[in-house]
Amino acid sequence: MKQQKPSKFSVFETELMKTLIEKAKQFQGFTHPNPLVAAAIYHKNEVISWGVHRMKGGVHAEVDAIQGANDNTDGASLMVTLEPCTHTGSTPPCVSAIIKAGIKEVIFAIEDPCNLVRQKSAKTVLEEHGIQVRSGLLEKEAYHLNHDYMYFHQNKRPFIHLKAGMSLDGKIALSSGESCYITNELSRKKVHEMRSKTVGIVIGSGTLVSDNPKLTVRHGYLENKQVPPTIVVIGNKKIDDCHDYAIFESGYRSILVTSNEHNDHPSFSDVWVIPKTTNKIIDWTLFFQKCYENNMYSLLIEGGQKTFSHFLEGGIVNKCSFFIAPKLFGQADAKSVVELTRVDTLKDIFTLKNITIEQYDDDTCITGFCSLKENDTLINNNKGE
């Protein structure tokens, strides 16, 4: 019988990392464009202090833990959910604080894929100063914690999550256009939670004009979190540049994405002019480039039918969540959630992987990953969640 290799991490270390991942989760929606990170300083299996990165511009988790240790750091160990930074951004490098504190050993779960960190790894810097470094503890769970941030820096494009509410027969609006509140209040509350954790909310011109949504974060999920900007993708369509749409009422950032340089609206914070390509509403590569330049590492696609279809047919959606209400519209000409043009055989249909099913009173939410090559790491790191 093949002997199992002994783990390089103790039970105490494994349990401590689990605790840190849970502590970091509590600050979802606060830290963009930074990742979620928690840290602890300990000695002989006793925790001396905890640290968490709470908000953009605030101290990093490692420094927070060092400050909380009240100078009891010499010869201690530091554990952190993500590789410590080695560059100067809004704050000095965390490796400098670790070295100065006299830490003897650092354990981190997973490497940071950000280019600024990859220029010189924390392991290299710390070991040059005689500090022992171990990594890979609960790597899968740590990836899942920051899956959108990780994906963004590994692929240079945002993680895209499509969300739709529909009837049992897959409809999002009656033939008359009426569509308000198909799903129940609990489902809508969940959507506000999803908004609070994303970096940008995307709709098309049809949803802007017909629904005139606010797309704010309500139901108690806002608090001190950053409000995601609304991104309206209209391609070469024209919208009424005199209409005061509801998305402008909040005063939060809004971005118009158009392929026509003459399209404009005075109330939008920004206008991104991105040319269209054959069979595409815009050039997705250039759109991703703009998102990357603006540190938008995750987008929530909220509608409507044409926008859903453009994103799905573009092969750029990573994850879908479909909230299904126990209602039948029964109209043949009612608007379906998507209308795809490239489905001729069953081989062409979209299939979701790694499915999860959640119940919100009478509504059912089915969530899964799309069949993209870049999704392999995401799917593998979400199995068993």
When the domains are counted, the total is 2
What is the CATH first-level class name of the largest domain? Alpha Beta
Mean pLDDT: 90
The share of residues in extended strands comes to 15-25%
CATH homologous superfamily title of the largest domain: Dihydrofolate Reductase, subunit A
**Widest sheet: strand ordering:** 11-10-9-8-12-6-13-16-15
Low-confidence stretches: none
Query: Structural class per helix/strand content?
Result: alpha/beta
State the major sheet: 9 strands, mixed
Choose one word for the global shape. Answer: elongated
Looking at the overall shape, the CATH architecture of the largest domain is 3-Layer(aba) Sandwich
Q: How are helices and strands ordered from N to C? A: HEEHEHEHHEHHEEHEHEEEHEHEEEEH
Q: Separation of termini?
A: 31 Å
CATH fold call of the largest domain? Dihydrofolate Reductase, subunit A
In total, the number of strands is 16
Helix content: 25-40%
What's the tally of helices? Answer: 12
* C-alpha-based Rg, rounded: 23 Å
